[in-house]
């Protein structure tokens, strides 16, 4: 695939929290001459070394689908964060990913070794022409990879790719108790746009859901 043939764009960082260092990285990748009409706009990768481990943020490819499916399923089974309690079936997930690749929707995975440990995507809204500047963001990391700054860098990478694809607004929804995610989204400039009361019910417990959005300046 096109992204596999790009040798450059890999960067290694070997100090503290990676989030504080990501702006320079992204400044560099923003200027790498990507043309969304000719290439997949998420066509880049970033590698991070932390405490002797290397994580790579890379555009999703077909061979990542089983790992992506397993990661989504694991986070869904925690029951606390997502809008589903198990991953969609593998065939649906496969179609979802292949469609994203074909449509050039930004979709990144985090690899540790050869395994998928997280994902982030922005799916363009194709329901109506007047919404086509908008995309919906989803993100998740396996538990042991949280709180290390990976989510912040992953989001910045994906948001930047969405802007490069011509989107100018990113929507998301987040369950009300998910303080980590809400804090991350606010710190990246997302604003609260609404509260859906008792929008989720899990194990008999209701939970509000917040609608948040980031508008390109
Ligand atoms: C949400 C998630 C992707 C964040 O990724 P992460 O790697 O854990 O987050 P980071 O380490 O990059 O932290 C990013 C920011 O989150 C915010 N944050 C973290 N914990 C927080 C808390 N308890 N309260 C408020 N903000 C918090 C901070 O702004 C933090 O940045 P800072 O430490 O530089 O100040 C990750 O925790 C995750 O996968 N959670 C489970 C799945 C999920 O919730 N998905 C989103 C569904 S809407």
Any overview of this molecule?
The chain has helices at 22-30, 65-77, 90-103, 150-164, 179-187; strands spanning 46-50, 53-59, 107-112, 115-124, 134-141, 169-175, 191-202, 205-215. It has an eight-stranded mixed β-sheet, with helices on both faces. Helix 1 packs parallel to helix 4 (150-164). The chain starts with 21 loop residues before the first helix and ends with a strand. The chain is globular and about 40 Å long. The protein has one domain (2-164): Aminopeptidase (3-Layer(aba) Sandwich). The protein is built from five helices and eight strands. The protein is an alpha+beta fold and 217 residues long. Coenzyme A (COA) binds next to strand 5, helix 4 and helix 5.
Lateral arrangement of strands in the main beta sheet: 1-2-3-4-5-6-8-7
Count of separate structural domains: 1
Overall radius of gyration: 17 Å
CATH architecture: 3-Layer(aba) Sandwich
The DSSP helix count reads 5
What's the CATH class, please?
Alpha Beta
What is the makeup of the main sheet? 8 strands, mixed
User: In percent terms, what proportion of residues is strand?
Assistant: 25-35%
- Find the CATH topology: Aminopeptidase
* CATH homolog superfamily: Gcn5-related N-acetyltransferase (GNAT)
Number of strands: 8
The helix/strand class is: alpha+beta
Helical residues, percent: 25-40%
- pLDDT < 50 runs, ≥5 residues: 1-39
Mean pLDDT figure: 83
Could you spell the SSE succession in H and E letters?
Answer: HEEHHEEEHEHEE
């Amino acid at each position: 695939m096109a992204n596999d043939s790009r040798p450059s764009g890999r960067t290694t960082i070997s100090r503290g929290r990676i989030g504080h260092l990501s702006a320079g990285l992204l400044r560099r990748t923003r200027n790498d001459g990507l043309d969304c009409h000719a290439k997949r706009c998420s066509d880049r990768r970033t590698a991070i070394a932390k405490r002797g481990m290397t994580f790579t943020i890379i555009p999703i490819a077909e061979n990542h689908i089983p790992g992506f499916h397993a990661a989504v399923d694991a986070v869904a089974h925690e029951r606390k964060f997502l809008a589903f309690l198990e991953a969609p079936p593998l065939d649906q997930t496969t179609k979802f990913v292949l469609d994203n690749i074909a449509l050039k929707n930004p979709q990144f995975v985090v690899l540790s070794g050869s395994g998928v440990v997280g994902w982030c995507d922005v799916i363009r809204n194709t329901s109506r022409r007047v919404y086509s500047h908008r995309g919906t963001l989803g993100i998740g990391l396996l538990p042991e990879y949280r709180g290390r700054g990976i989510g912040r860098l992953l989001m910045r990478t994906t948001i930047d790719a969405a802007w490069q694809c011509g989107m100018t607004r990113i929507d998301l929804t987040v369950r009300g108790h998910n303080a980590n995610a809400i804090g991350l989204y606010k710190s990246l400039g997302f604003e609260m746009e609404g509260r859906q009361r008792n929008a989720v019910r899990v194990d008999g417990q209701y939970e509000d859901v917040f609608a948040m959005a980031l508008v390109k300046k």
